Amino acid sequence: MNARSKVYAQGSRPDIQVPFTQVELSGGEAPIRLYDTSGPGSDPEVGLPKLREAWIAERAGAAASTIVHEGAELECPTQLHYAKQGIVTPEMEFVAVREGLEAEFVRAEIAAGRAILPANVNHPETEPMIIGKNFLTKINANIGTSAVSDSVAAEVEKLTWATKWGADTVMDLSTGKHIHETREHIMRNSPVPIGTVPLYQALEKVNGDPVKLNWEVYRDTIIEQAEQGVDYMTVHAGVLLRYVPLAARRVTGIVSRGGSIMAAWCLAHHEENFLYTHYRELCEIFAKYDIAFSLGDGLRPGSIADANDDAQFAELRTLGELTHIAWEYDVQVMCEGPGHVPMHKIKENVDLQQELCGEAPFYTLGPLTTDVAPAYDHITSAIGAAMIGWFGTAMLCYVTPKEHLGLPNREDVKEGVIAYKIAAHAADLAKGHPKAQEWDDALSKARFEFRWQDQFNLALDPDRAREYHDETLPAEPAKTAHFCSMCGPKFCSMKISSSIKEQFGPDSEVTSADEVTAGMLAKSAEFAAQGNRLYLPMVD
Amino acid sequence: MNARSKVYAQGSRPDIQVPFTQVELSGGEAPIRLYDTSGPGSDPEVGLPKLREAWIAERAGAAASTIVHEGAELECPTQLHYAKQGIVTPEMEFVAVREGLEAEFVRAEIAAGRAILPANVNHPETEPMIIGKNFLTKINANIGTSAVSDSVAAEVEKLTWATKWGADTVMDLSTGKHIHETREHIMRNSPVPIGTVPLYQALEKVNGDPVKLNWEVYRDTIIEQAEQGVDYMTVHAGVLLRYVPLAARRVTGIVSRGGSIMAAWCLAHHEENFLYTHYRELCEIFAKYDIAFSLGDGLRPGSIADANDDAQFAELRTLGELTHIAWEYDVQVMCEGPGHVPMHKIKENVDLQQELCGEAPFYTLGPLTTDVAPAYDHITSAIGAAMIGWFGTAMLCYVTPKEHLGLPNREDVKEGVIAYKIAAHAADLAKGHPKAQEWDDALSKARFEFRWQDQFNLALDPDRAREYHDETLPAEPAKTAHFCSMCGPKFCSMKISSSIKEQFGPDSEVTSADEVTAGMLAKSAEFAAQGNRLYLPMVD
């Protein structure tokens, strides 16, 4: 029997089925349930079942799905709009069950703009998830074809691989040919929300020349992607003409691709960013499909030297302004953040974003805490990601070992996802999330009791944990042995320690130093009586 | 010509030759010098040259090398003793050149007990290094044979491999057979200080039964290792009889091998820890050889659940007492720390240790910030290590991917060392160490200017950085290409951004938003004049 299995918890109606990975334990404990992003699985050609289809249909055309803005009635089937009206959608209830919280709490956090539930009405395949500082910290994995590496099947497989290891959302950053086709396959096979940077495809439509970009081309691209079901879109509307020179004097200038494209357009036309001047039109389109804004930080620092500078914070102030405009239209919004930041400058980023953006969710890339380790930036950035998550960042965009060097392959995607699941969980522990430590405690208890199979099954990566153990001690008996290869059978600290625990275990009445000393004297008699044989098991 | 080479800086006398890795840069900058721990290299059978032999001989028998304690004159050739007398030893000057600081500052930090310079008089092969919070953060790598894996040659090779990648000290934790012989080969081939846990060998001498341990066996083991040249020794003198029951009620009890052995001894004899009762005799022996104490944290937490508990902090208070006793004998001392600690409980560990131990250097194992990722504990712990380093920990003991699962092989040792060099350097950046950021800035500048070879040569791991780049773009021209595989030639943000930099570069006079707008208008004329051709290079 497989000790790790997928189980579903049912909500208030039969079609609310919330997935978990259930781990059976051999120590007499109840099974433990872990958050599961892997989805139901599917044949890539067929696509996933449309979990949300009925929920979306029930709401279609209802009065509750429209909003009046400056006299005009607009379609507005957004989770934020429903939440503000006090409506708990099936999506909100799904999230509540998934996070182990009250549905009303989920609704209130969304209504306040402190959390978003990305769910395009044209992406019914998504299993609802939530992004907000008062929920489990989420992670995003980037995939996508490029001019020099281009295979639709490979990207769909990366998507499935990323969600298997725990990616909560995936961004399709495809450039080059087949962008539309690649995205279609990704949408239909994704159990998690999909994000994009529409500017990349718009640029393809004008043959890669930023100068030729214009609002019409961009708007058509947005609508094309909205129809396919993209759940959130990165929009670089904060890169204003007057900010560009501030970035030009940096060590690494502008490192955001979208940011550099818009900066190039602004300079070429010496006009204000058209994404900024047409922002309210964008809001109307996003409201109609329930697309969430991911306000891009086009001027994020690209090096330790440029962290927290004028260009970065000037743009952040504009993102704050744009956040409040999106809320006028009941459009969900989160803000993107750096990038490259040394540890002592990380907290300021979260505090300022939360203040300027009315506590809208923060979504950061890393940050990398040093620039000296290309090929290990999943580690340089996991350090910053764990800290910024603890400080209140809601979602962490992964960085793979290939960052700054090349395109991530299958193994790089896994390394990046695992490093970020570690950062996110470390943040949840530090934030004191109610359910976070239960997982650590279960694994620690299994470790102390030498229940190797339980340790492997509870591990973030059971395969590798088992593989590493077997390298030194392959024999099956070693899986139940009361020692490991680190100390060997004779000197195992856990073994000695558990013997001690038998003497002074949880049931011990001993509470003060005096009582302890008294207790010791009593115990000594027992030792003598059994000829100090307490430690004989060690040399078995 | 090799862009990375070993160079030596000479001190005030010809035999003070301080090693650096020098990296030549192609951007017109001066070469950059990086801290180098790799040593001069040697034939394992011959051993390394005795760099410090003359310095030690010069001091032998001098009045400055004795101390009078409670009426008795004791041999005391310790760096702390010389520092207190205002003497700057060649070792201190070597360290000053190595860290880019004044020799007098080095002496003062050692005299204050805030830093240690581990240098057993019988280990003349060491290249002097210093451990203290006001210096570069150091890292330690553990190696050693065990009952189930036993090869002298393999351990010497791990030593050389660890120092090649940046280990500042190495601990030989050998158990099983050939402990003495293994250590002898390690000592004679080590350019870095070697630490041990003498209790492991003492236990071998009583056939692995903790109950049979006694002071005489332990003392003889200490002297045997002192004669071989061990530079610092972990002594578990803080595990007091009355603390044991406090640990017995934990989720993971006692996870320190030395701690569990002494706890077993205390319980079996219901007597106080003999390392505590004979501590002053230990101080006299350590003084004679200039061995530094690494006061062991035998009761460190072994899980998130047990972090910062009564048992841990009770022992820490005793370590504070022992630190001040060691200083009576002018013996150098540092204190060991956890272990497993969630992020929000890390700072308390450093603050309390610094307060109780009079700012003696703190030396921590990680800490791991979560228990759920066996096989990735180099990452779970690099997060905690970077933070605790920033907060003032002087040396970080590495954790490899095999932690909790098996014995690290060659590749695991490298993964652990690199993860910890990242953590240590991130800490130096956050502490604002004067020379730390120069390395990041050099690499960032090379990155922005597409000087790929410079990026590889400046990388913590040049081999892997080059390998990862070549996986996607192997062609030699790509090494100088003004793009990378991430965006491809057309959409490279760095490329666009550097074009912008040409327009508004460091020489730009523009300082205010108004001037910028004015500046933009002026620039627009130039754009028009050249037919908006600024971005044509992009599509080359």
Topology (SSEs and partners):
2 copies of one chain form a homodimer.
Chain A: E1 4-10, E2 17-23, E3 32-35, H1 53-59, E4 66-69, E5 72-75, H2 79-84, H3 90-99, H4 103-111, E6 115-116, E7 131-132, E8 138-143, H5 152-165, E9 169-172, H6 179-188, E10 194-196, H7 198-205, H8 215-228, E11 232-235, H9 244-248, H10 257-269, H11 274-277, H12 279-289, E12 292-295, H13 310-328, E13 333-337, H14 346-356, E14 362-365, H15 377-390, E15 395-397, H16 410-431, H17 436-448, H18 452-458, H19 462-472, H20 493-504, H21 513-529
Parallel strand pairs in A: 8-9, 8-15, 9-10, 10-11, 11-12, 12-13, 13-14, 14-15
Antiparallel strand pairs in A: 1-2, 2-3, 4-5, 6-7
Catalytic activity (chains A, B): 5-amino-1-(5-phospho-beta-D-ribosyl)imidazole + S-adenosyl-L-methionine = 4-amino-2-methyl-5-(phosphooxymethyl)pyrimidine + CO + 5'-deoxyadenosine + formate + L-methionine + 3 H(+)
Binding site for Zn(2+) (chains A, B): 340, 404
Pfam families (chains A, B): ThiC-associated (PF13667), ThiC_Rad_SAM (PF01964)
